[in-house]
Amino acid sequence: MKILVLAAEYPHPGRLSSRIFNEKCVNALSQLCEKVEVLAPRPYVPAFLSFQPRWKSYMAISPYEVRNGVPIYRPATPVIPRIGGALWGDWIAYLWSRWTARSLHRRVRFDALLSFNLGESGEMAWRLGRTLGIPASGWAFGGDMRFPRTSLAGWVVRRAIERLDLIFYQSHELLEQAGHLLGRSAHQMPSNRHIVLPHGIPEPPSLKRSETRWRVRSALQIDDAHLMVLYVGRIVRPKGMFELLEAMSLAGPRDPRIICVMVGSYPAYDETSLLQKKLDQTPGLTGRVKLLPACKPDQVWEYLCAADLFAFPSHQEGMPNSLLEAMVMGVPSIAFAIPAALEIDPSGQGLVVVSPFDSASLAAAILRLADSSAERAQIAERGKAIVRDRFMVRKNMAEALRHLSQLVVTLKKSHVAAVGRRSSAT
User: Fold this and answer.
1) Are residues 154 and 218 in the same domain?
2) Average pLDDT over every residue of 359-379
3) Would you call 309 helix, strand, or coil by DSSP?
4) Number of domains in the chain
5) Cα–Cα distance measured from residue 159 to residue 138, given in angstroms and rounded to the nearest whole number
6) Mean pLDDT, the chain, as a whole number?
7) Sheet (strand 166-169) strand order
8) Residue 146 vs residue 48, higher pLDDT
9) Nearest-angstrom CA–CA distance, 63 and 272
10) Are the CB atoms for 335 and 320 separated by under 8 Å?
11) Residue-wise DSSP of 223-244
């Protein structure tokens, strides 16, 4: 198949970690398809905004580049600061991208469109699908579904759900959210058009675990006597940063071996300054919590080699990719019992879940696992098996392509039949 992927955000030189899983999915698709190209509109940056770190990073985005053999096209799109999010997924992105899409389609002749994130590019997908005359599909990732039904963003997503030919959902919770936006239950939505399918994570690289662990921990000044709790992700309140700090302040005095490493600081885009202020104001956390900058995607695997536990205190997720990566690397993991985490492991044997947003429960789980290497090993092996069975990106992208292929064939048959009826009528 030949697929045109639409993404509101895609990794770029100004921010290599921006929606990195969009790129990981595309890399898997490129190995399975005849042709994959990406259309990822970039914000147009007026000169008077270039002094701001975030908008300055947008200026580093090239209109065209090739990443891992995949062509990336980035037409400039006007986005108004602060209110731009409401417009980003609407028709403005479509208007400013359709010329590029038409030009690409004339050259490649795509079989279908696939949008990543319904709230930011779902509208552009169904409009471009009609413009180009090809099926349009979308993938609901998480936050793109959690809007009030009566809000502008909810209206945009609802129209995408109604008008796309095929939709994938990272979890059953997101399917239920789609039903809420449509005013119906998930059971009333056609299963051949609304499909629950996590996009999955890539195969971990082959690393010399012992050597990598020693090197990373030496750089962090963490010796083998310490137990390293790792967090990887954005430094924003909804990711549970402050609950994790509170848990560390509770667990630390009871087990001085515990050290927490938080990877993901990006001050221009997150709440690093607030978190650092909290660290400075909390007695007992100095030296016990290390806040590190966001790293290159490949470096995450190295941090996982160095970790003894992985903490995932997020408040809500579509499907938590960093948690899946920790589990597939055999790092025993703890998460708040949000729907997505419960969906990963309903049995509770490969992932420790604790009461949502409860720092005391999180601290108790950290202390319990810190005290039992045998339990850590059991959870690690079960978690690895769960992820390998259901959450690997190549396998799940192949399943998505199977559904897309069926859609293309069905629509072509319908078109041929319609032409035949018109011919008979004349």
Assistant:
1) no
2) 96
3) strand
4) 2
5) 12
6) 89
7) 64-67, 70-73, 35-39, 2-7, 112-116, 136-140, 166-169, 194-196
8) 146
9) 30
10) yes
11) -TTSEEEEEES--SGGGTHHHH
